[in-house]
Amino acid sequence: MHYITAGESHGPQLTGIIEGIPAGLTIDVDEINQALASRQGGYGRGNRQKIEHDQVEIVGGLRHGVTLGSPLALVVKNRDHAHWSEIMNPTSPATPANTVRRVEHPRPGHADLVGGMKYRHRDLRNVLERSSARETAIRVAIGNICEQLLAALGIQVIGYVQQVGSVKADDGISPALNVAQIKEQVEANDLRILDQDKVASIHDLIDQTKRAGDTLGGVIRVVVENVPAGLGSYVSWDTKLDAKLAGAVMGVNAIKGVSFGDGFKDATNLGSQVMDEISYDPANGFSRLTNHLGGFEGGMTNGMPIIINAAMKPIPTLYKPLQTVDVNTKKPLKANVERSDTTAIVPASIVVENVVAIELAKAVTDAFESSNIERLKGEIDRYRRELVEY
Ligand code: EPS
Residues that bind FMN, according to the entry (predicted)? Predict the structure, then answer.
């Protein structure tokens, strides 16, 4: 399975193609649109989201709502393109009139400067437009199709916010809750956090930060349950599934760190506090008494819930502009002020959830014959029974 996306933030549309989704899977388009709406939401978003109303169009690979096994092609239109139709016109030649709003003052922490140097762009808008997190809308559309595939196989994924700036929204690991319970709690507020009592103080923090012209990052957690043991492999470094998941999560804009389970705490804890002791019961087979390692041993799923943590840096576009240098005059000045979010931690939690779903769907379809969903279900059910009998 593989996928690719194309499209600029203020261009006509975002486009995505995914190949490798089995034939015979019924796709609920409303569910994709709900995921897109969740990605647009959250406290601390800027004004762009008042313009956009993301809706997916499926233009290949689907017939009467059922996948054909051929590549799926998806489109999400950028409504804001109406305001940029000359400046971001894909085909009309450049003129003085349609090359206004040049970006020549690179924003620190954004792709602007290095992207310009690498691709020889003098107008850094050519970088900004693609490096913008707008692209994550189409990754969520693709990810939701993968979530629907995983759900058909009994595997559930949820992403939520665990920390905003330095304020922790819950006490860390939440293994007592299953994915459905986490979903219900985090969808009850606009911060996607578990502890409703923290909502007001985090709103205050975001409001204060916005007034100061600054931005906030945070920590995201993804939990996946009912994953069969043995996805990924210890035999070679590039077959380890935790490494692939970490790569996909790092591939989400502004993510600076990824860990599994107790993560960096494992470095200071004693071995006896870190290893998850093994238990057995005849009905369910082997299990673990705890889940400090976040569902991975030897690069393989071990049958416990997968727990992934992702650290997001604050948005690099600040209303309080930072020091930079004009790429033409080479004179120091303050970076361009562009419209921005105060924090994108809520949308990022949806995006991280979805890229995890894509990577897991890839792992499952690589491991089992997956031309048709019913055959794939049968193979996974047989495999699950074999694991219990081991
Ligand atoms: C972004 C800047 C803002 C965000 C955008 C990401 O867009 P604009 O420059 O049009 O105000 O709203 O995110 C989205 C459009 C989105 O759908 O998530 C950036 O510079 O990365």
Answer: 130-132, 253-254, 298, 313-317, 339
